[in-house]
Amino acid sequence: MSGISDVARMAGVSKSTASRALTGGGYVSEATRQRVLEAARHIGYVASTNAASLVTGRTKNVGVIIPFVNRWYFGEVLEGVEDALLACDYDLTLYNVRPGTPSRSRIFEHFLARKRFDGVITIGLDPSPDELDRLLSLDRPVVSLGAQYDGVSSVAIDDVAVSRLATEHLIGLGHTRIVHIGGERSADLTGTVHGRRLRGYLDAMTDAGLGAETLHVPSEMTLPGGYAAGVQVVSNLRSRPTAISAASDEVAVGAIVAARRTGVQVPAELSIVGVDGHEYAEMFSLTTVEQSPREQGVAVVELLMDALGGRQESTTALLHPTRLVVRSTTARPRT
Amino acid sequence: MSGISDVARMAGVSKSTASRALTGGGYVSEATRQRVLEAARHIGYVASTNAASLVTGRTKNVGVIIPFVNRWYFGEVLEGVEDALLACDYDLTLYNVRPGTPSRSRIFEHFLARKRFDGVITIGLDPSPDELDRLLSLDRPVVSLGAQYDGVSSVAIDDVAVSRLATEHLIGLGHTRIVHIGGERSADLTGTVHGRRLRGYLDAMTDAGLGAETLHVPSEMTLPGGYAAGVQVVSNLRSRPTAISAASDEVAVGAIVAARRTGVQVPAELSIVGVDGHEYAEMFSLTTVEQSPREQGVAVVELLMDALGGRQESTTALLHPTRLVVRSTTARPRT
DNA sequence: CGCCGCGCTGAGAGCGCTCTCAACGTTATC
DNA sequence: GATAACGTTGAGAGCGCTCTCAGCGCGGCG
Q: Which of A3, A111, A16 shows the shortest CA–CA distance to B47?
């Protein structure tokens, strides 16, 4: 275990000078710097971030709080965040807070309190008041991706708008009996992604004078969830809708599979539109509103770096662009 | 920022005693311990793991090296590992080494060298000689999941056996024209998961006297990859096989979608079997050989904890059980 | 009664760094 | 020529802990 003193001795300078040369602070003559660098390389010296943290208080580590790892959006975001953090020379400590797990509270109460990070990125997190309290009392910058809450800068897309856009696409094609498949309906339609997407659907329907026709089939935000809901929609022969506005592409693809399996033609008998730009969308020719989670991951890291560098201009909420991609799961309804 | 001295002062003891009471080492009277604990709770004291690491050399942190986050198997494993690590009071630092990314070498050369962990878990890693070298020279325990390499204990399934089992299931049903869809064929059929699964298929075919009939369509180990390969298989009208042995469930589901889309009946005209026990398998009624990545994640953490606790009994290679689950994508071939 | 061992406690060294501060030689300024 | 300023360096304190070691009171034992 070679320390900085070894490097210093080998380069014939003091610990202080070696430190300066290595970390790049203060005055060091170019010659000395080279000598120190050479010595360090020679004995394979790597600074102990630990010891450095102890004195500087900065850990070169960022905590990432994420509810799921195994869903497309979250996986993409995580990879984007990881890449961006590495580029800034930061490690990433993962805190997987699956909702309803006992470990979730343990993370908030115990692990976060250790403050082994310079800042925190939360992804798609809808914190309880207590959790938010703990987060803010960490005395470290916190930024959020895919969700907005009090006192925290964020990067996200306009979930209401994307769902509205998707629904309006269906309305524009002439559909009137449009059903929305998505998450549970809760009292508050702004606290969750699926809530906001339900709201976008409702807004579009209301604005088109179809307010009385709205229909919401709740489902998990997963492919199997969409499948189950799709089966339900399709088997409802009496008043089968002519189109589905799904809260996400995973749900939409599930619905497509359900329709095909039941012999319902897509889009001839049933149009389906999703939201996300999932990697499966193209394969299923799914019409969808695309977003770019990877880029959002990079953006939220930038936001955090600003905060860490003291370049924080109060609380900001960045909205990333999205775009409608029309493929072949949507068409005019049969007259 | 309250330190241990504050706790000590408040409890009316020395720093040493406070430390003993808090970390549970050495002699402390029960009364004193309670007093210290109470004081710590009162001022919300949380020990700086950083400072502790500096003296003990243990970080209470584990590095996890993973090539993908966004594939089912890896996501499941990661969640299992995270859960198990939290239970042992360890943090998880994520190193996402996507193959071919420039960040991959940076991680091996720079980030790992910082040694901010007590041990390393590699997931499905096929390290280059140089990478393996760097890994072992870290002087920290390394354990591997889903891949075996020199000098490292591992947890995995028998990838050759599962694929052989899946293929034998098809052979048992009477199929002879069976094609394998899976990863690139490389010179060495043991270094990668898809290589070993290809080998299992080849072994089963050869043992059944069908050695001359083997056919391998390479594809990415993803759903779109399986779709593309499936299209290719299905459109080959002259000598269409009666069954597909897919290297993974994602590939198998892709092939199912391709078949349905082309109007080929599954399983009437084409049987398809996968490997993994993917969350989509049930929804597609896919016959498959199930494994349990989550449990494997837990198991590999146990292995690492043994190594960290000095209970390492040389290098072990645990094989986890798998089982064939017959659903309805496989049937006897039409005569 | 003296000594040892046991249970408990405190003093203080030191983990590997960074950073402040003083010192020193050299050059610019008046 | 005296002084200031600048660039460069080293000494050493101290980050917040753990851990070794010595000390102290007390009961058991020879």
A: A111
Q: Six-digit token pair at A170?
A: 């269906």
Full residue range of the structural domain in which residue B111 is found: 61-157+293-319
Cβ-contact A322, A158 below 8 angstroms:
yes
Q: Is the pLDDT of residue A237 over 70?
A: no
The token pair at A184 is: 């549970």
- Enter the tokens of residue A328: 């072949």
- B240 and B196 share one domain: yes
- On the question of pLDDT at B196 being above 70, the answer is yes
A235 is near strand C: CB distance < 7 Å: no
B18: nearest Cα among B302, B2, A150: B2
pLDDT at A187: 63
Q: Distances from the Cα of A149 to the Cαs of A40, A194, A227, A271, B254, in angstroms?
A: 46, 16, 32, 35, 39
- Structure confidence by residue, pLDDT tens digits, B28-72: 999 999 999 999 999 999 999 999 999 999 999 999 999 999 999
| Peptide bond before residue A321 is cis, with ω within 30 degrees of 0 | no
Element (H, E) at A79: helix A72-87
Tally of structural domains, chain B: 3
Residues from chain A that touch B51, judged by Cβ atoms under 8 A, are 54
User: Could you tell me if A178 and A280 lie in one domain?
Assistant: yes
Determine the pLDDT at residue A312: 73
A114-133 residues touching B, CB cutoff 8 A: 114-116
Map residue A117 onto helix, strand or coil: coil
* Statement to judge: residues B297 and B151 lie in one domain: yes
Q: Are residues A297 and A283 in the same domain?
A: no
Same structural domain, B218 and B297: no
C-alpha–C-alpha distance, residues A139 and B29, integer Å: 35
Instruction: Report the DSSP beta bridge partners of residue B275.
Output: B289
Structure tokens that stand for A100 in this block: 């309803």
Dihedral, CA of residue B248, residue A68, residue B83 and residue B112, to nearest 10: 80
The tokens describing A171, both together, are 């309305």
Cα(B172)–Cα(B260) distance, integer angstroms: 24
- Give the distance from residue A273's alpha carbon to the nearest chain B alpha carbon, in angstroms: 19
Name every chain A residue with its beta carbon within 8 A of the beta carbon of B227. 283
Say if CB B210 and CB B236 are below 8 A apart: no
**A324 belongs to a structural domain:** no
- CA B285 – CA B271 distance, rounded (Å): 12
Q: What is the pLDDT of residue A188?
A: 74
Q: Does residue B114 reach within 7 angstroms of strand C, measured from its CB?
A: no
Question: Would you say the C-beta of A17 is within 7 Å of strand D?
Answer: yes
Measured at the CA of B208, the angle between CA B207 and CA B210, to 5 degrees, comes to: 105
Tokens of B196: 């070993």
Chain centroid to Cα A63, Å, comes to 14
Neighbouring C-beta atoms of residue A239, cutoff 10 Å:
8
Task: Name every chain A residue with its beta carbon within 8 A of the beta carbon of B91.
Answer: 93, 111, 114, 116
Do both A153 and A210 map to the same domain? Answer: no
- Do A297 and A309 touch, CB atoms closer than 8 A? no
Q: Starting at the edge strand that comes first in sequence, how are the strands of the sheet with A119-123 ordered?
A: A317-319, A153-156, A142-145, A119-123, A61-66, A91-96, B91-96, B61-66, B119-123, B142-145, B153-156, B317-319
